[in-house]
Design a protein that fits this description.
- By secondary structure, the chain is mainly β.
- It is built from eight helices and 51 strands.
- The strands form eleven sheets. The protein has a 22-stranded antiparallel barrel. It has a five-stranded mixed β-sheet with strand order 10-15-16-13-14.
- A hairpin with a 4-residue loop joins strand 36 and strand 37.
- It is globular.
- Pfam families: CarbopepD_reg_2 (PF13715), Plug (PF07715), TonB_dep_Rec_b-barrel (PF00593).
Length: 1021
């Protein structure tokens, strides 16, 4: 009996011991041993969970030995830990390519392994390394299929983002969605961004008529639940300089060349004695600053309790320009507050409000007569100032033309100011009606106000086009507003364990409205910027001096999406959106945009086996229709926005007239997008490969100013031809991205990334009567330089092909006459090709001489971490894009780049650079002589950082202290002679905002993107 009783006692005691629960405390660290806040810690097969606080600590109550904890955090592998005692320390394994990572896809999210569309993600870690002044800059070279070009290197200048090519001659930029509402990338602080997701294919069809150019989804940072207050301060300061100077003739070289030019033209030489001229004035040095300051700081306070999360931040950016000193600069301040609250088990509230203020000053750029244009064309023989200390006047003789002026005087007499204030954000509420079904609603808003002032002082540059006879000030105010209301339901269910279904159904209401007023006043008191205000001007106008606009447009949309997978192996989704817009005529207000995507996770099949090489393989395909409605407001109507002058009682009276010709049949562009791709992981997930083949066919292009009969008055001031659906463009190509990540030891790890995009752009048709559209300018008084035409890339350069240099008179006489181009040829002149073979060189021989669109773009990135030291290099390359050299004024007395030193001076001396002469010549017409290969490789960012030992900094209450040094835009490898082969600027479209690709890639002396040296620190408390 006693043994049995003893056995029962032992069994009871053992059972009690094994069932005993206790509190578990733990610490979670990242790969470098630093505490990791915000990690989700969950008891497996239980609803019990918590989140690590700012110190990376967590606590769970009532846990028993043998319990499994599941730890997950975006950017790290999900890990499981078995509890064996009251204290746990976990070191998370960094893996930004985790298949369990949740990706935002628009009105919902999916795990990365379940994605069936072409979706790319850029996280905050990359933004921290790149330290871009503008978020768009971080997309260059980091995401395949995305190309970023600057319209100018000036602070605050617009940046163009293109996803999978250029498909229209209107607005080509993607739509940005910030936390669910339509917003702008350029008003955000990069340190407020958690992730940027790019939807490149039919996955974007859920956004309907605004998705044709792709969608960029921005998720901003939020506080973490159950975490202490966290304070993060980031700051960097630096200086900027021009990344490149052009090789221009110095004073002696210029004088000798000019003597030769005058002699060849049969004129007396202007510099009989060149001795003593020396190097002369380096005008680039005069206008390009060195050590130009840059300062950026931001502060974030975040945290959360069991029910509430919060994040409050502010930032300050102050950047001066490398051209123009204090006349060119950009200052941006932002403030943001984000709150989340679990109001109950069923209701969750989320709000995010951002305020942005920026001030920008600009100089004349991107055109004939710009500051850099003048710096390149004013000869080194002229000094900046005369004997009296006044700015030297550039002679107004024929040899200098009427637009070349002293660039320092031009900067000095430039006065403008632009202030922009924007408040935007959203308020969202989620209601969990029952298990698996959530109803979400959100109100997003943008309200922006801007004020600008431009002052033109009375000034004479010596008979130039920039002379101002009467001083004037122009002031403009703009008020733009929009709001959106989204409500949608999401239902998730599982049928028979293997069938997973997610359905989304919703409605969006969007309204946009605003107004503008502009006025000009003459005869500013004291001819001074200090008195440049409309209230002080008393001069009578000689023409209409007021203007403005008002607009109101709306869109109502319905959308639905169904997602299905079987065992996570066979994936399918279908979506459709119906949009109704006031932008189009009565018969075309409604559009339908369906799409389908599918995927197959082949590695989950039984026949795939347990391969040690191939860890994951998924095939994807998508097809759908998306829209683009980016046209001027009321584009299908004719409104009174033209200028007119009437006679009443014998007096001239300013009035308004009919503007553009109406087109009630106008409708949105349609993009038919096809994509086939695969996702592959190799060698224990160390290597990740993503490959896609795509075709994007854009139909019914919205083309403004279609030529029509002049009888109906398209040539009147303010009038214009109508906007019509009159073209088709196709972009096709291949994307490939590979990443390799290796952790060699606890002290050393490496990440390598390479991506490349091959692109073919082709215009399929232009239905405007002529079969082509011309835009873009070259020189003065020459025909349009670029075309959109079937069978060619959009915006290809249209001019004459060359065939070397005439070496003697016999060659001239044996060649078709070039007299129709403006002058008879002579030895030393450029020889043009008779394209049509009619024996005469004339305008019929113009042809394709170049393409501004790159054949391939690619990025290569490397990151190294050794103990507390981190190092990163990001590069970008563009291959196959051409650019027109148009910053050299083709006048006899203008300065030249030093390549003219290799000019033709007699038979056999040169077959590439023509002679110099003041005589009549056809050498200056647009030809491939002025078109250059603008391919380049750029080292975009190099950064070296050091993180102090946490054991040391934590004694001062600092959880992380990192110091770093970096260089942005370190060096560009290129054969292009101009300032920046990566810049692009096209003619402004009629909407006054977008740039046309027809005429892009013509270089008037692009403001160079600066090279920036940075010193910074990151501190977390």
């Amino acid at each position: 009996m006693k043994p049995k009783l003893l056995l029962m006692v032992l069994l009871l005691f053992t059972s009690f011991a094994f069932s005993q629960t206790f509190d578990v405390t733990g610490t979670v660290l990242d790969g470098s041993g630093l505490s990791l806040p915000g990690v989700n810690v969950k008891v497996k097969s239980s609803s019990q969970s918590t989140t690590t606080d700012f110190d990376g600590s967590f606590k769970l109550s009532g846990v028993s030995n043998g319990t499994t904890l599941v730890l997950s955090y975006i950017g790290y592998r999900t890990q499981e830990v078995v509890v064996s005692g009251p204290k746990v320390t976990v070191k998370m394994s960094d893996d930004t390519r985790s298949l369990d990572e949740v990706v935002v896809i628009g009105y919902g999210s999916q795990k990365k392994r379940e994605l069936t569309g072409a979706v790319s993600v850029l996280d905050s870690k990359t933004l921290d390394i790149l330290k871009p002044a503008r978020i768009e800059q971080a997309l260059q070279g980091t995401i395949s299929g995305v190309n970023v070009t600057t319209q100018s290197g000036a602070p605050g200048a617009p940046i163009d983002v293109r996803i999978r090519g250029i498909a229209t001659n209107g607005q080509n930029g993607p739509t940005t969605i910030i936390d669910g509402y339509v917003g702008d990338l350029n008003v955000l602080n990069p340190n407020d961004i958690e992730t940027i997701t790019v939807l490149k294919d039919a996955q974007a069809a859920i956004y309907g008529t605004i998705g044709a150019n792709g969608i960029i989804l921005v998720t901003t940072k939020m506080g973490k639940k159950n975490s202490k207050t966290r304070i993060s301060f980031n700051s960097y300061t630096g200086f900027q300089e021009a990344s490149r100077k052009l090789s221009i003739l110095d004073a002696t070289e210029y004088a000798l060349l000019l003597n030769e030019s005058y002699a060849n033209g049969g004129r007396a030489i202007p510099y009989p004695n060149v001795s003593g001229l020396g190097k002369g004035t380096d005008w680039q040095k005069e206008v390009l600053g060195k050590g130009v300051p840059l300062l950026n700081s931001d502060l974030t306070i975040s945290g959360g309790s069991e029910k509430i999360t919060y994040s409050i931040s502010g930032s300050h950016l102050d950047q001066e320009g490398v051209v123009g000193g204090d006349k060119s600069g950009y200052l941006r301040n932002t403030a943001r507050i984000a709150l989340g609250a679990d109001l109950s088990d069923k209701f969750k509230l989320k709000t995010n409000v951002i305020y942005t203020y920026f001030n920008r000053k600009t100089i004349n750029e991107n055109g004939l007569g710009s500051v850099l244009f003048n710096a390149l064309n004013v000869p080194a023989t002229l000094s900046p100032y005369d004997a009296n200390g006044n700015f030297t006047l550039v002679p107004s003789t024929t040899g200098f033309g009427t637009e070349i002026i002293n660039p320092l005087a031009q900067i000095e007499n430039t006065y403008n100011d632009y202030n922009y204030k924007k408040l935007n954000g959203n308020f969202g509420l989620d209601y969990k009606i029952f298990k698996g079904f959530v109803l979400s609603s959100s109100i997003g808003f943008n309200t922006a106000n801007s004020e600008s002032k431009t002052f033109d002082p009375q000034i004479s540059y010596g008979g130039k086009v920039f002379d101002v006879q009467r001083s004037s000030v122009t002031q403009r105010t703009v008020n733009d507003n929009d709001y959106s209301f989204d409500i949608y339901g999401t239902y998730n269910t599982k049928i028979a364990e293997n069938h997973n279904i997610t359905a989304t159904l919703g409605n969006t209401i969007y309204k946009q409205w605003g107004n503008s007023a502009v006025a000009t006043g003459y005869d500013v008191p004291n001819n001074s910027w200090e008195f440049a205000d409309l209230s002080l001007t008393k001069g009578l106008p000689t023409a209409l001096n007021t203007g403005g606009y008002v607009y109101d447009q709306r869109r109502i949309s319905y959308f639905g999406r169904a997602q299905y997978d079987y065992k996570g192996k066979y994936l399918f989704s279908a979506m459709i959106r119906r949009d109704s817009s006031t932008k189009f005529g009565p018969g075309n207000k409604v559009g339908y945009f369906p799409s389908f995507t599918a995927g197959w996770v082949a590695s989950d099949e039984g026949f795939f086996g347990e391969s040690q090489t191939f860890n994951f393989l998924k095939f994807r395909v998508s097809y759908g229709t998306l829209g683009n409605d980016q046209i001027p407001n009321n584009g299908y109507l004719s409104i009174l926005n033209g200028e007119a002058t009437y006679v009443f009682d014998g007096l001239l009276v300013n009035g308004a007239a009919t503007g553009q010709i109406p087109n009630p049949d106008l409708k949105w562009e349609e993009a038919k997008k096809f994509d086939a791709g695969l996702d592959l992981r190799l060698f224990n997930d160390k290597v990740s490969v993503v490959a896609d083949y795509f075709i994007d066919t854009r139909k019914d292009l919205l083309i403004p100013n279609i030529p029509v009969s002049g009888i109906i008055g398209v040539g009147a001031p303010g009038a214009s031809a109508p906007t019509m659906n009159a073209g088709t463009v196709r972009n096709s190509g291949f994307e490939f991205a590979i990443d390799y990540k290796e952790k060699f030891s606890d002290s050393f790890s490496m990440t390598l990334g390479y991506n490349v995009t091959f692109l073919k752009n082709e215009v399929i048709e232009v239905n405007n009567g002529t079969g082509f559209i011309e835009q873009g300018s070259f020189g003065v008084g020459q025909p349009a330089a670029a075309r959109m035409e079937a069978g060619k890339p959009i915006g290809y350069f249209y001019g004459y092909k060359t065939d070397g240099i005439f070496q003697n008179q016999a060659e001239v006489e044996a060649h078709p006459s070039q007299l129709a181009l403006g002058a008879n040829a002579s030895p030393g002149d450029i020889r043009y090709v008779d394209i049509n073979g009619d024996g005469v060189i004339d305008t019929k021989d113009r042809t394709d001489i170049g393409d501004p669109i790159a054949d391939a773009t690619m990025g290569f990135n490397i990151q190294l971490n050794y103990k507390n030291i981190d190092f990163a290099v990001y590069t970008f390359a563009s291959v196959g894009n051409d650019m027109v050299r148009n910053y050299e004024r083709t006048l006899s007395d203008a300065n030249r780049l030093d390549y003219v030193l290799d000019r033709w001076t007699g038979e056999g001396t040169s077959n590439s650079v023509p002679k110099v002469t003041t005589g009549a010549t056809a050498n200056n017409v647009l030809s491939d002589y002025f078109v250059e290969d603008a391919s380049y490789l750029r080292i975009q960012n190099v950064q070296l950082g050091y993180t102090l030992d946490p054991k040391v900094t934590q004694k001062a209450g600092i959880t992380k202290l990192r110091l770093y040094a970096g260089v942005n835009n370190l060096y560009t490898f290129t054969k292009y002679k101009g300032f920046d082969p990566g810049a692009s600027f096209g003619p402004t479209n009629r909407d006054g905002v977008s740039q046309s690709p027809i005429g892009a890639g013509i270089d008037y002396g692009f403001y160079p993107v600066p090279r920036t040296y940075l010193l910074g620190l990151n501190i977390n408390f």
